[in-house]
């Protein structure tokens, strides 16, 4: 789209006269003449170039031309030919290159960013708006364009930082949103645009916790030591809170709750039987799982062992 000037300057010594100067172009089909300057007969431009080629300063000393609105078809070698009397012909060549303007702008100074998404920040109790996910384009030159695409009605929070020594700009865009149960399974797509690597999409699926309690299927009996229930959750972002409660009565003493586990620090008692619930919360929501624990008397357990020796031996080996 730009204008290209092809320069051709002629030194005409004394006793030398310029008969004609011209521009020719080498195409796969052969040499063609683009434009001719003749001091006696004037200027002639080939039909296909007439609208966009002109001599800049037509004279015996200057055969420079301007080629307007160049396109990729103009790429290639061009030759300026000069016919003199009495010395004859002389010529010089140049090669025209045409590049995409966007590429030219970034060609020497492009740094491809490192792109990643991370699960958002921790939900503080009572906070309505939380950053559920952050998309980062690290050290981009020029700075990357970063955004989130989703059907959720949140908003974006952008943060940019110049890296030292011209190593680019880091752009982080957080997705800020009020947790709501309907978000389960909704996708957030981070879109990064940059000359390198072009457009980049990263998908993050938001999942409220899918809660599973391990340990409830064990045979629990009076006097058993180190009994525990483990609460596990499949969630995105990662859960930040696990709670254990006992539903029918108060949580008994002698129980430690840590890392999602409920552990009895003393031998089990008959009245530890009951309904327990694990609640797991992440930025998307709160989900629960209830478990009923039945603690057998020691005698009952022994009779179970005797009636089902195979099952019993498995338990004993634990
Ligand atoms: C190219 O040259 C033409 C004529 O000289 C001028 O009108 C036009 O603005 C120029 N275009 C550019 C991109 O310089
Ligand atoms: C130019 O031509 C004249 C006569 O033909 C000659 O005497 C003179 O030396 C020439 N000059 C040069 C620079 O060749
Ligand atoms: C930046 O450049 C300075 C001096 O040229 C150098 O001391 C420093 O280590 C560089 N920092 C990084 C992050 O490359």
From TrEMBL:
<keyword id="KW-0732">Signal</keyword>
<dbReference type="InterPro" id="IPR007110">
    <property type="entry name" value="Ig-like_dom"/>
</dbReference>
<dbReference type="GO" id="GO:0005912">
    <property type="term" value="C:adherens junction"/>
</dbReference>
<dbReference type="InterPro" id="IPR013162">
    <property type="entry name" value="CD80_C2-set"/>
</dbReference>
<keyword id="KW-0472">Membrane</keyword>
<dbReference type="Pfam" id="PF13927">
    <property type="entry name" value="Ig_3"/>
</dbReference>
<keyword id="KW-0325">Glycoprotein</keyword>
<keyword id="KW-0677">Repeat</keyword>
<dbReference type="Pfam" id="PF07686">
    <property type="entry name" value="V-set"/>
</dbReference>
<protein>
    <recommendedName>
        <fullName>Ig-like domain-containing protein</fullName>
    </recommendedName>
</protein>
<feature type="domain" description="Ig-like">
    <location>
        <begin position="209"/>
        <end position="292"/>
    </location>
</feature>
<keyword id="KW-0130">Cell adhesion</keyword>
<keyword id="KW-0812">Transmembrane</keyword>
<dbReference type="InterPro" id="IPR013783">
    <property type="entry name" value="Ig-like_fold"/>
</dbReference>
<dbReference type="InterPro" id="IPR003598">
    <property type="entry name" value="Ig_sub2"/>
</dbReference>
<dbReference type="InterPro" id="IPR013106">
    <property type="entry name" value="Ig_V-set"/>
</dbReference>
<keyword id="KW-1133">Transmembrane helix</keyword>
<dbReference type="Pfam" id="PF08205">
    <property type="entry name" value="C2-set_2"/>
</dbReference>
<dbReference type="GO" id="GO:0043296">
    <property type="term" value="C:apical junction complex"/>
</dbReference>
<comment type="similarity">
    <text>Belongs to the nectin family.</text>
</comment>
<dbReference type="InterPro" id="IPR036179">
    <property type="entry name" value="Ig-like_dom_sf"/>
</dbReference>
<dbReference type="GO" id="GO:0007156">
    <property type="term" value="P:homophilic cell adhesion via plasma membrane adhesion molecules"/>
</dbReference>
<dbReference type="GO" id="GO:0007157">
    <property type="term" value="P:heterophilic cell-cell adhesion via plasma membrane cell adhesion molecules"/>
</dbReference>
<keyword id="KW-1015">Disulfide bond</keyword>
<dbReference type="GO" id="GO:0016020">
    <property type="term" value="C:membrane"/>
</dbReference>
<feature type="domain" description="Ig-like">
    <location>
        <begin position="1"/>
        <end position="97"/>
    </location>
</feature>
<dbReference type="InterPro" id="IPR051427">
    <property type="entry name" value="Nectin/Nectin-like"/>
</dbReference>
């Amino acid at each position: 789209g730009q204008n290209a000037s092809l320069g051709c300057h002629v030194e005409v010594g004394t006793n030398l006269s310029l008969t004609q100067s011209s521009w020719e172009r080498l195409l796969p089909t052969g040499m063609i003449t683009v434009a001719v300057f003749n001091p006696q007969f004037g200027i002639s431009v080939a039909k296909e170039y007439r609208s966009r080629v002109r001599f800049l300063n037509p004279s015996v000393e200057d055969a420079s031309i301007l080629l307007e609105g160049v396109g990729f078809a103009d790429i290639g070698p061009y030759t300026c030919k000069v016919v003199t009397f009495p010395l004859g012909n002389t010529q010089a060549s140049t090669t025209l290159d045409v590049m995409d303007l966007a590429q030219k702008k970034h060609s020497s100074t492009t740094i491809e960013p490192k792109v990643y998404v991370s699960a958002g920040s921790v939900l503080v109790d009572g906070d309505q708006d939380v950053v559920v996910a952050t998309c980062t384009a690290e050290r981009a030159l020029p700075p990357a364009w970063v955004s989130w695409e989703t059907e959720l009605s949140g908003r974006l929070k952008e943060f940019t930082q110049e890296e030292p020594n011209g190593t680019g700009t880091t752009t982080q865009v957080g997705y800020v949103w009020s947790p709501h149960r309907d978000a389960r399974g909704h996708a957030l797509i981070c879109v990064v645009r940059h000359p390198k690597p072009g457009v980049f999409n990263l998908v993050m699926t938001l999942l409220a916790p899918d809660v599973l309690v391990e340990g409830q299927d064990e045979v629990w009996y009076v006097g058993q030591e180190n009994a525990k229930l483990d609460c596990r959750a499949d969630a995105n972002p990662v859960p930040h809170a696990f709670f254990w409660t006992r539903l029918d009565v108060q949580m008994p003493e002698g129980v430690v709750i840590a890392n999602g586990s409920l552990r009895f620090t003393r031998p089990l008692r008959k009245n530890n039987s009951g309904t327990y619930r694990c609640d797991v919360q992440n930025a998307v929501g709160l989900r629960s799982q209830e478990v009923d624990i039945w603690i057998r008397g020691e005698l009952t357990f022994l009779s179970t062992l005797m009636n089902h020796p195979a099952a019993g031996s498995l338990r004993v080996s634990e």
